[in-house]
Every structure is written in C-alpha cells, then in structure tokens.
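yo

u said u wanted the structure for the complex thing, so here. seqs first:
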Amino acid sequence: MDSFTHGGNIYYYSKLLGCNANEIIDLSSNISPFVDENIFEFIKNQISSLKNLPSSNAIILKEALANKYDKEMENFVVGAGTSEIIKNLCLINSGKKALIIAPTYIDYERYCKLYNLQINFHFASEKRNFAINLQELDFSKFDIVFICNPNNPTGYYIEKDDILRIAKRFENCMFVIDESYHPFMSNSDNKSLLFEKSKNIIVLRSFSKIYGLAGLRIGYAFSFNKEIIREIEKHCLEWGVNSLSEVVGKYLLSIKTDKIASKINEIKNYLYEELKDCNNIKLFSSATNFVLIKLYHLNSEEVFTKLLSNKILIRDCKNIRGLDDSFIRVAIKDLDSMRYFLSILKKIVGCEN
Amino acid sequence: MDSFTHGGNIYYYSKLLGCNANEIIDLSSNISPFVDENIFEFIKNQISSLKNLPSSNAIILKEALANKYDKEMENFVVGAGTSEIIKNLCLINSGKKALIIAPTYIDYERYCKLYNLQINFHFASEKRNFAINLQELDFSKFDIVFICNPNNPTGYYIEKDDILRIAKRFENCMFVIDESYHPFMSNSDNKSLLFEKSKNIIVLRSFSKIYGLAGLRIGYAFSFNKEIIREIEKHCLEWGVNSLSEVVGKYLLSIKTDKIASKINEIKNYLYEELKDCNNIKLFSSATNFVLIKLYHLNSEEVFTKLLSNKILIRDCKNIRGLDDSFIRVAIKDLDSMRYFLSILKKIVGCEN
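structre next:
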C-alpha cells in the first residue's frame, strides 16, 4: 500500500482471495449502491454510440449542464472524473503555494506533488471531531486551497457561508471546493457553492458517487470565472470522456437524487444505532455516505484483513496523512450488506451483545 | 475551423444540418465501419461493470496485452486513447527539441505547443508523393521525433527496417512511432515495430480505428524501455479508461483483424478504380484505410460543403500543416456508403462518365 493508494481496488483483492470481483462487498469506495435499473436499459439502447468519437471537450455534457442549471456552457469544464480536473488545476498552478485542508482525499497531494506545488497542510484535529473553522486560518500566503466538502474521509461539512466569507476576504487565493459527496446531504442544493458568483471559487462535482456508476468516469467543475475554466480545459483531453459515458451522463442529469440520499441516510443511521454502545470503537458523525471509525484496541490492518477474509473490503486509513492505523472508513451500502458487515465487525472488535 | 480541429465532429454538423448524427456518412474520421455484432452482445452483458471503478492504471488491459504478446506488463502503458499518451510524452519532454514528420496528425504539434517543446518540421513533398526517406535526415539535434506510420493523412508507410536503422544511428533521440493505422495493412504484424528491443523507440497503438469503436477511448504504448513507460504513466490518470471500455478492450484483443483489413482494402481498391480516369483529382496511394485526394479545380471548402449538403462528412485538409485547401481526406467505409459518396463526388468535381 503506497501513500497514494485509493480504495475500490476489488480487482486486486478478488485475485488475492481467488473469487470473482462481484463477490466482494466493497465498502472501501464511496459509491452509492442504488442504481436505477432503468439506467441499464437506457445504456443497452445507447451502446452503438461507441462507434463514434465523443463530442469535443464533452460539449454534449456541458450543454446539458448549462441547460439544467440555466448557466452558460463556458462556466463548465467536464473531465474524466474530477481527477482529471484536479490534475490539471495542479498543472496550471505548478510552482505555486497550495494549502490542503487535511486529513482528506489523497489526490490533491498526489497531483500537487507531481506538478511541484509547494504543499502546506492544515490538519483538522481529532479532539474537535475533525471540525474545521476556516475563520481561524490565514490564507494570505497561498495561491490555491483544496477543501473537500463534505470532507472525505472525516464526513465533516463546512457551511457554505463560511467558505464564501473566506473567499471574499482572501481574494487572491483560488478556493477549490470538491463537492463530490454533496448530493448525499439532505436539502443539498441549498448547501452547495455551485453557481456562486465568486471569481475565486471553483466547485468540483462527480457523477461517480451519487449515481452509483463510478466506472463512467465523469466529473465536472463550475466557476463563475470563465478564464480559469478555459485554462483547465486546455489541458483536458479533447475526448477524455467515453462516448457512451457522455450520453449516459446526460441522462443521469435528469434523475432526482434526493431519494437515493435519504435511503442511504436511513441505513447510515442504522449503522450508528447498532454501534453506539460499542466502546471499542468510535464513529465520527458524517454528513455524507461514509463513516470514519476509530479503533481503540486493534489496528486498521488487523480489522481490514479480518473483514477481507469475509469478503468485505473497507478503507484502511493508515496512508491518509493526518490519520493513522487506528482509523478505518466504511461506505454505506444496501441494508443486507451493512447487516452482514455489522455482524462480522462486532465479532472482530468485540462488541457483541 | 481552428488549427487543431479534428475530423469526426458529427455532433456539430448534425446540428448544423438539422438531422440526427447517425444520418451523416462520416468519412472524416478514420474508423473502420465493420464492427462484429457479437461485440454489442458482449457489451450488453458487461454493463454492470460501470458500477465499479476501473482497475488502477488499466492493469486489466496491461495484463491482457502482456499475455497476448508474451511480454511484461511493465513495457505497456494504457491511456484514454493514444492522445493521453502523446500529451504526456510532450509534458515530460517540456522545453526539449521535437521533430515532427509532416504533413501529419495535428495532435503532435498541439501537445508540443501546449508543453513548450521547440517544434521543428520535416515536410514530405507532394512531388515525391509524400514519400519519406529517413536516411536523408539528420536527427542529431532532436530529443524526440514523431512519426505516424502509416502516416495520416498521406497514407505513406515507412519500412520498419528504415526506422530501426535511424533509431540505432541516433540513439540519443527518442522515436515515437504512432502505429494507429498499422492493423489495416496486409501482413501487418511483420511490418510493425511493436516489441523491438530498442531503448529509443516507443510504439503507439489505438483501439479506436481497426475495431470500429472509437468511442471506447483506448490507446496504448509499448517500449522496450520500461523507464520511459513508467514516466508516461506517472502523468496518466489512474482511472483514465472507463471500466466498461476496459473489459471490452480485453475482449477485442482476442479478435483477429485481418478480415476487417482485407474487406477495407477491397473497397479502397474499388475507390481507386472508380476514380483513376478522373483528371480533375489525384488520389495518392495509401497503405491504410483512408485516401488523400488532391483537387485540381475546386478548393477543399467547396467540395466539403457540397458533400456535407448531401450528408457526407469528409476531412478538409486545409488546417493540416504542409497541405493546403486543395486537399481532402476520405476514410474507407462500407461499399454502399462509398458508392453514394462516389456518385456525389463525381458530380461535384466533374468526373461523370
């Protein structure tokens, strides 16, 4: 496990276990388990789109986004996942000073390193349950700040107005707000920074998480600042999004996601309820579809390995800067999977009734 | 039409014509029209793979390539089309001296410019029917050389041994040999530089052209030099290839492509035969699935526009450096499409019997 290993590597672990990838209950990647079955019918009818090249710079998706949100196409850039956008943001800021609010998603650091940004971290503290008070921080020394909101892996959500306040105060700094997990919150639309008229905010959004189709590889960014959007797009592949993904993505934009979010929240609450009396672990509160768990008497590798031998894959957090081998992260999946997970976890950590 | 506009933009032109994209006969992108219908059945059964993230760095495809060709995985890098590989090759050679054998595919220049390489061109001459004699050239001043072989858009093929000879002579120069159109040649395997044990050759291969599924976005590079492969991969997205594309790509590797190639060659020969007596145009001989055509009395825009009004899209070559508005490029498609194209083209250029 190197320092930039992600979750979701079921291909590797299925080989290790000698089983099929689909036999593994993957709680390591934060992807919704609830996929509308209509989508698969739709996809079947769109397969022939693979005969053609995708549209240039995913213009089909940019148009669909602009129409849906009544904005201009030039405010959007579409990438092969938010990864392509994060990567190119770092590339165009090569040599500059970056601040990463940590512990967080490892790709900000990965790409800052690759393109030689000067990296600084502000660590949320476990003592404060990983809460972040942005108003305490001085951003004047930084060119670009990465904030995952709600944050992966802590689940902490920073209020929209708090971010707007610092963006106004530090207008020479570009704030990259990664809202990949935003749609899992209740009343999420009102809590989002999408479409704010701020020249120094870029909002990232992912199609991978809420729609349950991480394999599509679609992410996008919105900024009121068209120049920065154009700069990012210059470095994006003209045909980075597969032509089938493109038409599926357009279709997904017509789907309401509130029901998916509330179903996942119910199951998350059940998880909290089931583990609340277990003193050997601590669950941090989470605004989204995964939960960070502190282990008191075992290390993450032991728990990871024991769960894996039961074909359950979780995210061992020991390679996440600002955490250590006493943390694991668990994504919320369907109720049956969570029940099975709970039964095994309770045995491992010693919390059986 | 800016200087880096590609062919294949049926989405744009269908809007212009007010028709569906699939009503347009697309002779502007060099993609085989022959797709095995079994592939679509296979894809239908693999749709659920979209629920999961792709494998890291497309390891599924790298393994399949290594197995098929009995090589090591570490000699391959897989990208979202050869574009991702060309882009990253330029990125890691930023500031260095590049030579582009022209006229050719515009992405070499596009990415050399984007990443500030010092660009030089060697132009094949129309007088010599765009033939290239590499032995006449001095590569000692260059760090990286781009050779598309067979070349797009001229169709000229440079013998494998000619390239090996210069690679040996100029060992400080990296030769990037783009073999995207190689599989369309007869006995193509024997003519390829794939798997040559040369430290300064990188061979690019595309899944888009021969298999007729350009929308998949898969390309790969092979080099005996593992260090350069590792350097390129560092800048590739970990999940650049869609998870459905990945399984489809693996399946495609099991398909023999000789029959596709010979079907296309037959139709190409029919095109040459039908136009051989037409003195208002000249067809250059082509080793692959497209033909460069010189217009003597009309300019490319006139011919382009008239064909388009008949829902035929061709490649106007006026934005290709080293050509001008007397050239068009036409891809070989199924016989019916080519018959229809011939009937319209003959009227336009005045070659009716």
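Chain B touches chain A through 52 residues (CB under 8 Å). The longest strand of chain B covers residues 97-102.
cya
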